[in-house]
Description:
By secondary structure, this protein is of the alpha+beta class. Helices cover 16% and strands 22% of the residues. It contains 9 helices and 18 strands. The chain has a 6-stranded antiparallel β-barrel with strand order 3-4-5-10-7-6. A 6-stranded mixed beta sheet has the order 2-13-12-16-17-11, covered by helices on one side. The chain has a 3-stranded antiparallel beta sheet with strand order 14-15-18, with no helix packed on it. A hairpin with a 2-residue loop joins strand 8 and strand 9. The radius of gyration is 20 Å and the shape is globular. The two termini are 32 Å apart.
Amino acid sequence: MRSTPVSAAPRRGRRTALAAAVLVAALTLTATACGSEQDEADAKPGGGTSQAADAADTGGGEGGLPAGLADRLKKHGIDVDQWKDGGWKNWDRDKWLSEAKDFVNPVIEGLWKPDRMKSAKEADKTVTKDAAADQGATDPEPAPVEAVAEKKPYHENAAPVGKVFFDSPEGSMVCSGTVVKDVNHPGKSNLVWTAGHCVHAGGNGGWYRNIAFVPSYNDYGKSEAELANATITEMAPYGTWWADWASTSDQWIKGGSGSGGDGAAYDYSVLHVKPEQGGKSLEETVGAALEVDFSAPSATEVPSMGAWGYPAAPPYNGLEMFKCVDRPGRLSLSPSLPTMYRIGCTMTGGSSGGGWFRVVDGETKLVSNTSIGPLENTWLAGPQLGRSAEAMYQDMSKTYGGQ
Length: 403
């Protein structure tokens, strides 16, 4: 997703504004699992499937890598002793693994230092006006909704939200992500939801490398000047969590592209992560996780959706968390593809992969993620999460979930 700033949006009507206000009031993402108490009346937002996971590997392998991971690297002609010393920077086509079963992401401790995090560029995803033309199921383009900065500290207001860092042939990149519940490992989730284009380049590329998640990144929203000599604790209060396995849709792997492509409607991913240091699960550490809603409700049935993320393209700099809330509409890129959700929002690149939330029976659930947006930076679109997304999630949970 890539978008650029626009002026404040015009009012979309009292009904929509009220619905948005209800959603903001009802979103409860705070760190309740840590035992913090919160008055419900003052609730606030806070706190292609893979085949094998590093988490399941046992025994030591070459180069200090898990045995199973070392074997997979060797299978593809990758020198396990050189990988951590910079061998991962080889993006030759025959070294860039693409198949779902070939994901490799060994931990390189200390790689994601504060300065490297700050310098990571936004992951761009654009769709032109022509590509967004009416395909028979597209609602009128929404008015822009100005992104609003999330309250700080983030661990008290949006605990499950964070940033996803990764390396690509173009350099270090950044997206957004959300801690989600693991239905087969209650209270001990190590799962993160993001966009497929934040982990895999799609039809013309392969898996990105050094993929890591940082919940509540820059917890107090400090400025660039204030972070000149930031410690890793200031930037990553809950630590850095490396993806030891990633899953995205077959449709994204085969048809995804720099402009979304045929994979845009399936542009989602779930990561299984482990801490660079520490022993507790991600959910226990952060104190919050959201349930994923796979019912794929029609946009006409949902009065409001909210998108959260860390926009990094101007006028934003990726250091602060923002949100947009709007009544969703429909976006159809092709009659042969599932309809996507679309909301007005001025968040830019870097917010890709950030969760979209809705309230169901008083409970906040993740219902989509940011995928694409226009060059004019006036709206965002995200995929509906239906049966194929749920199958991907269940496979990850059952096979690689837990600790």
